[in-house]
């Protein structure tokens, strides 16, 4: 059927126009129900990843409007795939359109500049990337991908023909295929029980859970790498529609524009583009009867960790539809609707919200209706404004590559010893050169010119972030949607990139100083709660992958029953990841999950851990889990950040300066000044006479006594509250030790500068 007829085929016979029988064509294109056994959006029905791939393969065979391909394997070894959808005529010339877009992305490739660009714009197509399912408990988008693909592949509506003619759609059914099955298997297991609709008691991405959508500049996970390398960097889409779900009790749908702040390196044309498109989508959906739509609230556009396209010529349209309980319906009372950042009150219409949704039943079919409705609103705009989207895209590239004026920053220099920074920038399409180091500097420097297509991506990652001091009408700081700092050289090597204002003479050779971590040979366990912890996943990823391949890291998972029964065979060290005290001690409450997942380490486990330390073991606590250690082990230390009012103290994901005692084995090989990733973090004050405890504790890292020297990048309100306080402490307990980290030394696999502290702590 793939070549049954062309979309524009017609035959002239005896003066009559006989149009090819599109109806017959459409009937031979399988609907999702024909393959997966139900219509996506049906109550209490989820599809396996294998069945979804099978559906797209059958759709590919039946329709000449689509090609479908596997571009690699996921973390757990299943196919990572995407579909390319357009008119048959466009697909026959797909390489031509790829080449046109590549030239518009980098105007240096267009010889006669504007005139040639206009000719390319007239020929080109709007490239739209639709990504689904990065958060696997947000089940609607992966299901909706089949509905979107089926309509595009089978419908003969003028609207669809226009979309196919003027756009090329890249559709990723799931950015986390492993999670599709993790969630489905758990849902099916609990279906019809009191636990139906609960989230799985494991991370829904093997290592990073929800944080897979915080990986769009560090590129640590294979799914991120495949998407960037083989879709983003090949096609340079003008529009990325990133389909998500949000909480059940707020707006029914969020669309851009985003609330303040916008990261300053996002081009103005991107802001104009997502504002225009988001508002147009909202207006279109409202005109069709969709309720509860909000714009310019809830979500910001600050961190590149969630918005790769904003630094690569494309707008990111984040859509967030209200959730049910996975595939199970819920009822939401109007009085239970709530607000969100940016002034949203889901019970009250405003210029940025409405019309009101009055509450009632909310089910998976509502979710897929909103998602598919929003997707086709977006595709209509992309098709109807093709030349405008391509012109805007070209202007972004033209501005990026223009020569810099006198007084402007020309580029950034940073040490070639910054292992990891160069690799990240190059994966993001940035050209990194090398220049002479200078008389007082034995090593050369990396050098990044800003006058290149993705110079703004480099600038966003290399410079210090100064997050605006945003407060509400009560004088309280407004919570950022994610974190406030992303300065890579600080995170990776504890160095600053230096802005350059004069031309640099670049070299072709390079000298590298390879970073290597201490070897941890055996006897290490990582605590894993039944309440999934993303920090546990990041730590497990780090230890399993042994990033620098400097030796074998052998470790074991440690779950609640092991702790409760003191099963610590051959263990020397136990790591507790960043996790609240109650989750470690008590876990899931009885009745909230099946009995085998209920509870935490409990009081028995605490006693067993005490004996483990007293007999010579080491316990390492990261960030919030340090509060568990302080309370349960009755350590003579106070967390000075506990209970502080947010008006007085607020550091929501920032890079701080620390001072290290380099005579301690944990700080071996480290500089005297280092960093700490501070996010919901404790800071320590010893509560007993230090002279009486000389042999019982050591402060290994502390914050500067001068509050003005604490913040390196991000936002720190009330830094004086932690001035001079400890950030890393070791206590001697019997024959063993307890190590308290008041920060995450392995934060999202980005803070390589503090990896040695963790490795040293578990190597002693």
What are the SSEs and their pairings?
Layout: E1 10-13, E2 16-19, H1 22-27, H2 32-36, H3 49-62, E3 66-73, E4 79-85, H4 88-92, H5 94-105, H6 114-123, E5 126-131, H7 140-154, H8 158-166, E6 167-172, H9 177-190, H10 222-235, E7 239-246, E8 253-255, E9 259-262, H11 268-287, E10 293-295, E11 300-301, E12 315-322, E13 330-332, E14 339-340, E15 344-345, E16 353-354, E17 360-362, H12 364-384, H13 386-401, E18 411-415, H14 421-427, E19 433-435, E20 445-449, H15 455-462, H16 488-493, E21 498-500, E22 506-507, E23 524-527, H17 534-545, E24 555-558, H18 560-564, E25 573-576, H19 581-585, H20 602-614, E26 618-622, H21 625-632, E27 637-639, E28 652-660, E29 673-679, E30 684-686, E31 697-702, E32 711-713, E33 726-733, E34 736-741, H22 755-761
Helix pairs in contact: 3-7, 5-6, 6-13, 7-12, 8-12, 11-12
What are the defining features of this structure?
single chain, 764 residues, alpha/beta, Aminopeptidase, Rossmann fold, 3 domains, 10-stranded mixed β-sheet, 9-stranded mixed β-sheet, 34 strands
Please explain how this structure is put together.
The protein starts with 9 loop residues before the first strand and ends with a helix. The chain contains 22 helices and 34 strands. The protein is globular. Helix 3 runs parallel beside helix 7 and helix 6 runs antiparallel to helix 13. The protein has 764 residues and is an alpha/beta fold. Strand 3 and strand 4 form a beta hairpin.
